[in-house]
Automatic annotation (TrEMBL):
The active site is at residue 245. This is Methylthioribose-1-phosphate isomerase. It holds the Pfam family IF-2B. NCBIfam families: eIF-2B_rel (TIGR00524), PRK05720.1 (NF004326), salvage_mtnA (TIGR00512). It comes from Acetobacter conturbans. Keywords: Amino-acid biosynthesis, Isomerase, Methionine biosynthesis. The gene is mtnA. Its EC number is 5.3.1.23.
């Protein structure tokens, strides 16, 4: 995707040394675009846990490069397994992380130590290229949904789409999941408008999704998290598209906290609720999302404080709750498959069910 007309991916290798991994520091957005250079697996782990890099597909890709960085220091079997375990433990909910590490290990265990670094960088690069291609395909399949809505609109009438959190290109290697169809619809000339949930407590919608859409020129409006249901009741939402950090073999969806409430509101108002994901986000080993998906508990400080830009252009973090008040911070919730209209994958669209997934991915569900 492009920033001010310049094409970027969300992770790339520094061309000067062919080893350093480069990412954007997402904790600095939307106020400044800062590039981080990661040279060790520990720096990669910190970037993931601190959410300098975030988004399930991107976490997996960066972790793959993190293992390559680790092997450049010590390519032994023991070191490789230890570093892989360390990286896999950085974020518990997003399944792409575990998938990428397992893929890397499967490839590297059969490779001689002297060749592992080169093979690791090559495999991580393939993971990145595949993610970009998958998300572009998701965009094409999701675009059809927006085209169908446009057919029932008057000429020039807005197509209002609501999204939650950030599932754009900054959350993947390129294109994004939930935002990919929106970008393609806008580029095609369809009159799309996006309601952007602020997505407390880290405000990934207000900070990242709004920044992405604005950089691409897509009309959008930031709303507080609790406004979505009101807009649906008054006919101001045609479609909801969100991303996800893990989908079960039965179609349950784990996504940023608050997604479940949007799905309930959409269900009550008869509004299509679609979830966009690459197949790497499907956890074929899990069936019951509510019971089996681990929900990450993050720092209460993310709830009790907020960071923003002052009138003088300085970033400041301020407390917004009383001293002594406790805060809970579950980072994700699970939306049962019964509330999901369907899934948009790189292979096409399907119902959020074992049967629907089986049709797109035969042999994956035992």
């Amino acid at each position: 995707m492009k920033i001010n007309g310049v094409p970027y991916r969300s992770v790339w290798i520094d061309q000067t040394d062919n080893r350093t991994v480069c990412i954007f520091d997402q904790t600095k957005l939307p106020f400044s675009l800062v590039t981080l250079q990661l040279t060790t697996s520990a720096e990669v782990a910190h970037a993931i846990t601190s959410m300098q890099v975030r988004g399930a597909p991107l976490i997996g890709a960066v972790a793959a490069y993190g293992l390559a960085l680790a092997l450049s220091k010590d390519a032994s079997d023991a070191a490789m397994e230890d570093e892989a375990a360390m990286l896999a433990a950085t974020r518990p909910t997003a399944i792409n992380l575990r998938w990428a590490i397992e893929r890397m290990l499967t490839k590297l265990r059969a490779v001689a130590e002297k060749d592992r670094v080169a093979v690791a960088y090559d495999e991580a690069g393939h993971i990145c290229d595949e993610d970009a291609a998958q998300n572009e395909a998701i965009g094409r399949h999701g675009l059809e949904l927006i085209r169908e809505i446009a057919k029932n609109k008057k000429s020039g009438e807005k197509i209002n789409i609501l999204t939650h959190c950030n599932a754009g290109w900054i959350a993947t290697v390129d294109w994004g999941t939930a935002l990919a169809p929106i970008y393609m619809a806008y580029d095609e000339g369809l009159p799309v408008h996006v309601w952007v949930d602020e997505t407390r407590p880290r405000n990934q919608g207000a900070a990242l999704t709004a920044w992405e859409l604005g950089s691409h020129g897509v009309p959008h409006t930031v709303i507080v998290d609790n406004a979505g249901g009101h807009l649906m009741q008054h006919g101001k939402v045609d479609l909801v598209i969100v991303g996800t950090d893990r989908v079960t073999a039965q179609g349950d969806v784990a996504n940023k906290i608050g997604t479940y409430l949007k799905a309930l509101a959409a269900h009550d108002n008869g509004i299509p609720f679609w979830v966009a994901l690459p197949s790497t986000t499907i956890d074929w080993r899990v069936r019951d999302g509510l019971r089996e998906i681990p929900i990450e508990e993050r720092s209460p400080q993310e709830v009790t404080t907020v960071t923003g830009e002052t009138a003088a252009g300085e970033l400041q973090t301020v407390r917004i709750t009383p001293q002594g008040s406790n805060a809970a911070n579950p980072a994700f919730d699970v939306t049962p498959a019964r509330l999901v209209t369907g899934l948009i994958t790189e292979r096409g669209r399907c119902t959020a069910s074992a049967e629907g997934l089986r049709k797109l991915f035969p042999g994956s569900i035992s």
